[in-house]
Specification:
With 370 residues, the chain is α/β, with parallel strands linked by helices. A hairpin with a 2-residue loop joins β3 (15-17) and β4. The longest helix is centred in the middle third of the chain and has 22 residues, at 165-186. It has 16 helices and eight strands. The chain is elongated and about 80 Å long.
Length: 370
Protein backbone atom coordinates (compact mmCIF):
# COMPACT_ATOMS: atom_id res chain seq x y z
CA UNK A 1 0.00 0.00 0.00
CA UNK A 2 1.48 3.35 -1.03
CA UNK A 3 1.59 6.21 1.44
CA UNK A 4 3.41 9.17 -0.10
CA UNK A 5 7.13 8.53 -0.38
CA UNK A 6 7.15 4.87 0.59
CA UNK A 7 5.35 1.68 -0.35
CA UNK A 8 4.26 0.28 3.00
CA UNK A 9 3.45 -3.39 3.41
CA UNK A 10 0.07 -4.87 4.41
CA UNK A 11 -0.72 -5.72 8.03
CA UNK A 12 -2.72 -8.77 6.90
CA UNK A 13 0.43 -10.41 5.51
CA UNK A 14 3.37 -8.71 7.29
CA UNK A 15 4.70 -10.79 10.18
CA UNK A 16 5.19 -8.86 13.42
CA UNK A 17 6.36 -11.95 15.33
CA UNK A 18 7.23 -15.54 14.34
CA UNK A 19 4.20 -17.08 12.58
CA UNK A 20 2.03 -14.11 13.54
CA UNK A 21 0.79 -11.34 11.26
CA UNK A 22 0.57 -7.78 12.47
CA UNK A 23 -3.23 -7.83 12.21
CA UNK A 24 -3.40 -10.93 14.42
CA UNK A 25 -1.03 -9.40 16.97
CA UNK A 26 -3.16 -6.25 17.17
CA UNK A 27 -6.30 -8.34 17.64
CA UNK A 28 -4.67 -10.34 20.45
CA UNK A 29 -3.48 -7.20 22.22
CA UNK A 30 -6.94 -5.62 21.95
CA UNK A 31 -8.59 -8.72 23.37
CA UNK A 32 -6.24 -8.97 26.38
CA UNK A 33 -6.36 -5.22 27.00
CA UNK A 34 -10.18 -5.29 27.08
CA UNK A 35 -10.03 -8.12 29.61
CA UNK A 36 -7.63 -6.15 31.83
CA UNK A 37 -9.54 -2.87 31.43
CA UNK A 38 -12.72 -4.62 32.63
CA UNK A 39 -10.85 -6.10 35.59
CA UNK A 40 -9.83 -2.59 36.70
CA UNK A 41 -13.15 -0.98 35.69
CA UNK A 42 -11.64 1.63 33.38
CA UNK A 43 -14.00 4.05 31.69
CA UNK A 44 -15.14 3.67 28.10
CA UNK A 45 -13.36 6.83 26.85
CA UNK A 46 -10.04 5.74 28.42
CA UNK A 47 -10.35 2.24 26.97
CA UNK A 48 -11.20 3.55 23.50
CA UNK A 49 -8.27 5.98 23.62
CA UNK A 50 -5.82 3.16 24.34
CA UNK A 51 -7.45 0.99 21.68
CA UNK A 52 -6.45 3.75 19.25
CA UNK A 53 -2.86 3.37 20.48
CA UNK A 54 -3.08 -0.40 20.11
CA UNK A 55 -4.43 -0.10 16.58
CA UNK A 56 -1.49 2.00 15.42
CA UNK A 57 1.43 1.29 17.79
CA UNK A 58 3.10 -1.15 15.39
CA UNK A 59 2.26 0.52 12.07
CA UNK A 60 5.99 1.15 11.70
CA UNK A 61 6.52 -2.58 11.24
CA UNK A 62 4.95 -2.13 7.80
CA UNK A 63 8.21 -0.46 6.75
CA UNK A 64 9.58 -2.68 3.95
CA UNK A 65 12.97 -3.01 5.67
CA UNK A 66 11.54 -4.04 9.04
CA UNK A 67 11.54 -7.74 9.91
CA UNK A 68 11.10 -9.53 13.23
CA UNK A 69 14.08 -11.83 12.53
CA UNK A 70 16.58 -9.10 11.66
CA UNK A 71 19.37 -7.87 13.90
CA UNK A 72 17.81 -5.01 15.88
CA UNK A 73 20.80 -2.76 15.28
CA UNK A 74 20.24 -3.03 11.52
CA UNK A 75 16.49 -2.64 11.57
CA UNK A 76 14.30 0.49 11.40
CA UNK A 77 12.95 1.66 14.77
CA UNK A 78 9.29 0.81 14.37
CA UNK A 79 8.06 3.29 17.01
CA UNK A 80 9.24 6.33 15.07
CA UNK A 81 8.05 4.81 11.79
CA UNK A 82 4.59 4.30 13.31
CA UNK A 83 4.60 8.04 14.02
CA UNK A 84 5.72 8.80 10.45
CA UNK A 85 3.14 6.39 8.99
CA UNK A 86 0.29 8.25 10.69
CA UNK A 87 1.79 11.59 9.65
CA UNK A 88 1.70 10.43 6.04
CA UNK A 89 -1.92 9.31 6.32
CA UNK A 90 -2.84 12.73 7.73
CA UNK A 91 -1.10 14.46 4.81
CA UNK A 92 -2.54 12.27 2.06
CA UNK A 93 -6.02 11.36 3.32
CA UNK A 94 -6.69 14.32 5.58
CA UNK A 95 -6.15 15.02 9.27
CA UNK A 96 -9.57 13.67 10.18
CA UNK A 97 -8.34 10.17 9.32
CA UNK A 98 -6.01 10.11 12.30
CA UNK A 99 -7.92 12.28 14.79
CA UNK A 100 -9.36 10.30 17.71
CA UNK A 101 -12.83 11.22 18.93
CA UNK A 102 -12.69 14.56 17.05
CA UNK A 103 -10.19 15.72 19.67
CA UNK A 104 -6.85 16.98 18.32
CA UNK A 105 -5.30 17.62 21.72
CA UNK A 106 -6.03 14.11 22.99
CA UNK A 107 -4.85 12.65 19.67
CA UNK A 108 -1.49 14.40 20.05
CA UNK A 109 -1.10 12.80 23.46
CA UNK A 110 -1.97 9.38 22.04
CA UNK A 111 0.54 9.84 19.21
CA UNK A 112 3.16 10.58 21.86
CA UNK A 113 2.28 7.28 23.58
CA UNK A 114 2.74 5.49 20.25
CA UNK A 115 6.10 7.18 19.74
CA UNK A 116 7.29 6.21 23.24
CA UNK A 117 5.64 2.81 23.65
CA UNK A 118 9.02 1.08 23.98
CA UNK A 119 10.62 3.58 26.34
CA UNK A 120 10.03 5.69 29.43
CA UNK A 121 7.34 8.38 29.17
CA UNK A 122 9.76 11.31 29.21
CA UNK A 123 10.31 14.22 26.83
CA UNK A 124 13.66 12.81 25.78
CA UNK A 125 13.83 11.84 22.11
CA UNK A 126 16.64 9.53 20.90
CA UNK A 127 18.98 11.16 18.41
CA UNK A 128 18.42 8.26 15.99
CA UNK A 129 14.71 9.09 15.94
CA UNK A 130 15.47 12.70 15.02
CA UNK A 131 17.82 11.64 12.21
CA UNK A 132 15.18 9.34 10.72
CA UNK A 133 12.57 12.09 10.94
CA UNK A 134 14.82 14.69 9.27
CA UNK A 135 15.94 12.36 6.50
CA UNK A 136 12.40 11.32 5.66
CA UNK A 137 10.69 14.71 5.61
CA UNK A 138 13.72 16.77 4.48
CA UNK A 139 12.56 19.60 6.72
CA UNK A 140 15.30 20.91 9.02
CA UNK A 141 12.99 23.18 10.99
CA UNK A 142 10.71 20.28 11.89
CA UNK A 143 11.84 17.87 14.61
CA UNK A 144 10.15 15.42 16.96
CA UNK A 145 11.47 17.40 19.90
CA UNK A 146 9.76 20.51 18.52
CA UNK A 147 6.55 18.56 17.99
CA UNK A 148 6.61 17.31 21.58
CA UNK A 149 7.36 20.78 22.97
CA UNK A 150 4.95 22.74 20.79
CA UNK A 151 2.08 20.30 20.51
CA UNK A 152 2.08 17.48 23.06
CA UNK A 153 3.13 19.56 26.08
CA UNK A 154 0.62 22.26 25.19
CA UNK A 155 -2.13 19.69 24.68
CA UNK A 156 -1.79 18.08 28.13
CA UNK A 157 -3.27 21.09 30.04
CA UNK A 158 -6.14 21.20 27.57
CA UNK A 159 -6.83 17.48 28.03
CA UNK A 160 -6.62 18.02 31.79
CA UNK A 161 -9.12 20.86 31.58
CA UNK A 162 -11.54 18.92 29.39
CA UNK A 163 -11.42 15.49 31.02
CA UNK A 164 -9.97 16.07 34.50
CA UNK A 165 -6.93 14.89 36.45
CA UNK A 166 -8.20 11.35 37.00
CA UNK A 167 -8.53 10.85 33.26
CA UNK A 168 -4.79 11.41 32.77
CA UNK A 169 -3.99 9.02 35.62
CA UNK A 170 -6.35 6.40 34.18
CA UNK A 171 -4.89 6.91 30.70
CA UNK A 172 -1.39 6.23 32.00
CA UNK A 173 -2.57 3.15 33.89
CA UNK A 174 -4.41 1.92 30.81
CA UNK A 175 -1.22 2.43 28.81
CA UNK A 176 0.47 0.10 31.31
CA UNK A 177 -2.21 -2.53 30.73
CA UNK A 178 -1.71 -2.19 26.98
CA UNK A 179 2.03 -2.78 27.41
CA UNK A 180 1.27 -5.87 29.48
CA UNK A 181 -1.11 -7.17 26.81
CA UNK A 182 1.49 -6.38 24.14
CA UNK A 183 4.15 -8.39 25.99
CA UNK A 184 1.82 -11.35 26.54
CA UNK A 185 0.95 -11.51 22.85
CA UNK A 186 4.59 -11.20 21.81
CA UNK A 187 5.67 -13.99 24.20
CA UNK A 188 2.68 -16.26 23.45
CA UNK A 189 1.46 -16.11 27.06
CA UNK A 190 -2.15 -15.34 26.22
CA UNK A 191 -3.46 -17.84 28.76
CA UNK A 192 -2.46 -15.48 31.56
CA UNK A 193 -5.32 -13.64 33.20
CA UNK A 194 -5.66 -11.23 36.11
CA UNK A 195 -7.77 -12.42 39.01
CA UNK A 196 -8.41 -11.36 42.58
CA UNK A 197 -7.00 -13.29 45.56
CA UNK A 198 -9.25 -15.95 47.04
CA UNK A 199 -9.11 -15.57 50.81
CA UNK A 200 -10.84 -18.22 52.92
CA UNK A 201 -11.02 -18.64 56.68
CA UNK A 202 -9.60 -22.15 56.37
CA UNK A 203 -6.66 -20.85 54.38
CA UNK A 204 -5.89 -18.14 56.94
CA UNK A 205 -6.18 -20.62 59.82
CA UNK A 206 -3.72 -22.90 58.02
CA UNK A 207 -1.33 -20.00 57.50
CA UNK A 208 -1.50 -18.83 61.13
CA UNK A 209 -1.16 -22.33 62.52
CA UNK A 210 1.73 -23.34 60.28
CA UNK A 211 4.35 -24.97 62.50
CA UNK A 212 2.56 -23.85 65.68
CA UNK A 213 -0.08 -25.10 68.06
CA UNK A 214 -3.21 -23.28 66.98
CA UNK A 215 -4.50 -20.87 69.64
CA UNK A 216 -8.30 -20.87 69.45
CA UNK A 217 -8.72 -18.09 72.01
CA UNK A 218 -6.39 -15.80 70.06
CA UNK A 219 -8.15 -16.73 66.81
CA UNK A 220 -11.44 -15.43 68.24
CA UNK A 221 -9.71 -12.08 68.75
CA UNK A 222 -8.03 -12.09 65.36
CA UNK A 223 -11.22 -12.69 63.33
CA UNK A 224 -12.55 -9.33 64.54
CA UNK A 225 -10.24 -7.78 61.92
CA UNK A 226 -12.67 -8.82 59.20
CA UNK A 227 -15.18 -6.15 60.23
CA UNK A 228 -12.82 -3.24 60.89
CA UNK A 229 -12.71 -0.21 58.56
CA UNK A 230 -9.80 0.98 56.41
CA UNK A 231 -7.13 2.23 57.01
CA UNK A 232 -6.11 0.29 60.09
CA UNK A 233 -3.04 0.26 62.33
CA UNK A 234 -2.66 -2.97 64.27
CA UNK A 235 -0.68 -3.07 67.51
CA UNK A 236 -0.18 -6.38 69.28
CA UNK A 237 2.51 -8.24 71.27
CA UNK A 238 5.32 -10.14 69.54
CA UNK A 239 4.09 -13.57 68.45
CA UNK A 240 0.44 -12.52 68.23
CA UNK A 241 0.47 -13.09 64.46
CA UNK A 242 0.22 -9.53 63.20
CA UNK A 243 1.76 -10.27 59.80
CA UNK A 244 -0.32 -13.28 58.84
CA UNK A 245 -3.65 -12.03 60.20
CA UNK A 246 -3.47 -9.12 57.75
CA UNK A 247 -5.35 -11.37 55.34
CA UNK A 248 -8.34 -11.36 57.71
CA UNK A 249 -8.67 -7.62 57.22
CA UNK A 250 -9.40 -8.17 53.50
CA UNK A 251 -11.70 -11.18 53.94
CA UNK A 252 -14.90 -9.15 53.52
CA UNK A 253 -13.46 -6.41 51.32
CA UNK A 254 -13.29 -6.47 47.53
CA UNK A 255 -9.70 -5.96 46.48
CA UNK A 256 -8.02 -6.71 43.15
CA UNK A 257 -4.72 -7.68 44.78
CA UNK A 258 -3.08 -7.90 48.17
CA UNK A 259 0.39 -6.42 48.63
CA UNK A 260 2.62 -7.20 51.57
CA UNK A 261 5.43 -4.67 51.96
CA UNK A 262 8.18 -6.19 54.10
CA UNK A 263 11.46 -4.60 55.25
CA UNK A 264 14.06 -7.19 54.18
CA UNK A 265 14.73 -9.73 51.44
CA UNK A 266 15.03 -12.47 54.07
CA UNK A 267 11.58 -11.63 55.42
CA UNK A 268 10.14 -11.53 51.90
CA UNK A 269 11.54 -14.92 50.92
CA UNK A 270 10.45 -16.57 54.17
CA UNK A 271 6.90 -15.20 53.99
CA UNK A 272 6.63 -15.99 50.27
CA UNK A 273 7.52 -19.64 50.93
CA UNK A 274 4.85 -19.86 53.64
CA UNK A 275 2.19 -18.29 51.44
CA UNK A 276 2.83 -20.60 48.48
CA UNK A 277 2.12 -23.62 50.69
CA UNK A 278 -1.37 -22.28 51.38
CA UNK A 279 -2.33 -20.32 48.25
CA UNK A 280 -0.19 -22.06 45.59
CA UNK A 281 2.72 -20.75 43.53
CA UNK A 282 0.47 -19.41 40.77
CA UNK A 283 -1.25 -17.07 43.24
CA UNK A 284 1.74 -15.62 45.07
CA UNK A 285 4.65 -13.56 43.76
CA UNK A 286 7.72 -11.90 45.25
CA UNK A 287 9.89 -9.09 43.96
CA UNK A 288 12.76 -6.99 45.26
CA UNK A 289 15.89 -5.19 44.06
CA UNK A 290 18.28 -7.63 42.29
CA UNK A 291 15.53 -10.27 42.20
CA UNK A 292 16.57 -11.13 38.64
CA UNK A 293 20.07 -12.01 39.85
CA UNK A 294 18.66 -14.57 42.28
CA UNK A 295 16.10 -15.86 39.80
CA UNK A 296 18.68 -16.70 37.16
CA UNK A 297 20.11 -19.38 39.46
CA UNK A 298 16.70 -21.07 39.65
CA UNK A 299 15.52 -20.65 36.05
CA UNK A 300 18.18 -21.78 33.60
CA UNK A 301 15.75 -21.84 30.67
CA UNK A 302 15.76 -18.40 29.00
CA UNK A 303 12.06 -18.44 28.08
CA UNK A 304 10.99 -19.57 31.54
CA UNK A 305 13.26 -16.98 33.16
CA UNK A 306 11.80 -14.14 31.05
CA UNK A 307 8.22 -15.21 31.77
CA UNK A 308 8.78 -15.55 35.52
CA UNK A 309 10.61 -12.22 35.71
CA UNK A 310 7.84 -10.43 33.80
CA UNK A 311 5.21 -11.77 36.22
CA UNK A 312 7.32 -10.77 39.23
CA UNK A 313 8.52 -7.28 38.29
CA UNK A 314 5.06 -6.23 37.08
CA UNK A 315 3.29 -7.52 40.22
CA UNK A 316 0.97 -9.79 38.25
CA UNK A 317 0.15 -12.39 40.92
CA UNK A 318 -2.98 -11.88 43.10
CA UNK A 319 -0.81 -11.78 46.24
CA UNK A 320 2.51 -9.92 46.00
CA UNK A 321 5.27 -9.75 48.61
CA UNK A 322 7.69 -6.91 47.96
CA UNK A 323 9.37 -3.88 49.56
CA UNK A 324 8.17 -0.38 50.26
CA UNK A 325 10.78 1.05 47.90
CA UNK A 326 9.18 -0.87 45.00
CA UNK A 327 5.85 0.77 45.86
CA UNK A 328 7.46 4.20 45.99
CA UNK A 329 9.34 3.74 42.70
CA UNK A 330 6.03 2.88 41.00
CA UNK A 331 4.44 6.11 42.17
CA UNK A 332 7.49 8.33 41.74
CA UNK A 333 7.24 7.49 38.02
CA UNK A 334 10.70 5.97 37.74
CA UNK A 335 11.43 4.16 34.46
CA UNK A 336 8.57 2.17 32.96
CA UNK A 337 6.47 2.63 36.07
CA UNK A 338 3.18 2.49 34.20
CA UNK A 339 3.08 -1.34 34.09
CA UNK A 340 3.51 -1.48 37.89
CA UNK A 341 1.48 1.40 39.27
CA UNK A 342 -1.74 0.17 37.71
CA UNK A 343 -1.49 -3.05 39.75
CA UNK A 344 -2.09 -1.08 42.95
CA UNK A 345 -5.55 0.06 41.80
CA UNK A 346 -8.14 -1.07 44.35
CA UNK A 347 -5.55 -3.23 46.09
CA UNK A 348 -5.11 -4.06 49.74
CA UNK A 349 -1.74 -3.09 51.26
CA UNK A 350 -0.13 -4.41 54.43
CA UNK A 351 3.05 -2.75 55.72
CA UNK A 352 4.90 -4.91 58.19
CA UNK A 353 7.25 -3.46 60.84
CA UNK A 354 6.10 0.06 60.05
CA UNK A 355 7.95 1.41 63.09
CA UNK A 356 11.36 0.84 61.44
CA UNK A 357 10.61 3.05 58.42
CA UNK A 358 12.53 6.30 58.22
CA UNK A 359 10.57 9.54 58.24
CA UNK A 360 11.07 10.27 54.54
CA UNK A 361 9.79 6.89 53.35
CA UNK A 362 6.80 7.05 55.69
CA UNK A 363 5.87 10.55 54.49
CA UNK A 364 6.14 9.52 50.84
CA UNK A 365 4.04 6.42 51.44
CA UNK A 366 1.29 8.35 53.24
CA UNK A 367 1.31 11.01 50.48
CA UNK A 368 0.71 8.47 47.73
CA UNK A 369 -1.73 6.49 49.84
CA UNK A 370 -3.93 9.57 50.14
Amino acid sequence: MEKGKMIWEDRETKLSHPNKTLSRHIEEVKRKFTEFANFYSLSSIVSRAIEYVIEHHDDGKLHPLWSYDKNKSKMPYHSIWSFIYLSEIAKIQGREKVIFNSDEDLTRLLLFLILKHHSALTEGIPEDYENIFHNYFKEKKLSIKTIVENYVNKSIPKVYQKYGRNFLIDLCDAFGLFKLADSLSASENLDFTLHSPEITMDGIRALIGMGLIFNETRWNEQVKLTDLPSPLMLRAPTGWGKTTVGFLFFKNKRVNKIFYLLPTITAITSFFNRLTKVFGKDNVGEYFYFYDAELIHEKSDTEEFSKHLMYAQNFLRPIMVTTLDQFLLSFLQIGRYYTKRVMFRNSGIVIDEVHILNERMLCLFLYFLK
